[in-house]
Amino acid sequence: MNVVEIAFSCYPVTDMARSRAFYEGVLGLKMTVNSDMGEKGHWVEYDIGAGTLSLGRYADSKPTPDGCCVGLEVEDFDKAVADIQAANTPIKMGPFETPVCHMLMVSDPDGNTLILHKRKPGHS
User: I need a labelling partner for 89 at 20 to 30 A (CA). Which of 11, 17, 25, 47 fits?
Assistant: First the structure.
């Protein structure tokens, strides 16, 4: 086996409309896939650069703040922080600075942890 890249990261959600309002409205992501399978579940994708962030509502999948965590690189960190604060999004930690970046950990509407991230110049 030769794994060549991360195909996608997925957060389980309980209310797709509420989650889409957060990911599209607050974070400004553009939906690229919307697959509503009725009783079987609902899958939404957002292509971000070379990666994909997915939201899934399906049986036996429960959101948890201790599961997968996605770090989203933002263009303007201060604006991202201001947008999060203006939307009254729960902040788990930060904003804080490391030697290579700035980060803010927030909770989505289901309590999943999401990191907003900005690399400092010279760090890739």
Answer: 47
Number of domains in the chain: 1
Sign of CA dihedral 113, 29, 77, 8: positive
Q: What is the pLDDT of residues 24-79, one digit of tens each?
A: 999 999 999 999 988 889 999 999 988 899 999 988 888 887 888 889 999 999 99
- Identify the residue whose tokens are 């399978």: 37
Note whether residue 3 is domain-resident.
no
Q: What is the 3-state secondary structure (H, E, C) of 55-73?
A: EEECCCCCCCCCCCCEEEE
Residue 2, domain member (yes or no): no
Residue 124 lies in a domain: no
